Amino acid sequence: LMGFRELSSKKQFPSARENGYDVYYQSYHAIKKIIQLKGEKSIKNVLMDLKDMRFYSSFEKNIGLSIEDVEKLLK
What we know:
By secondary structure, the chain is mainly alpha-helical. It contains five helices and no strands. Helix 2 crosses helix 3 and helix 2 crosses helix 5. The longest helix has 16 residues, at 23-38.
C-alpha cells in the first residue's frame, strides 16, 4: 500500500506502478470502503467542496476521517 499523500498528482501514478504498486486497484478499494462507510454522496460532497477548500480539508470534512485513517482501514 502506497501512501495516498505520495500520490497527489497524476504524474506520480506511473512512477508508483513502475515500483510495483497497484495504485489504481488501491484507489478503487479506498473509494469502495468510503462508500461502504459513508455512502455514495460523501464522494460527491468531497468533490463539490473542492471549489472552496483544499482536497484533504474537504476529504476530512465530508468523510470524517483523514486519508491516513482510510489507509489504515485498507491494510
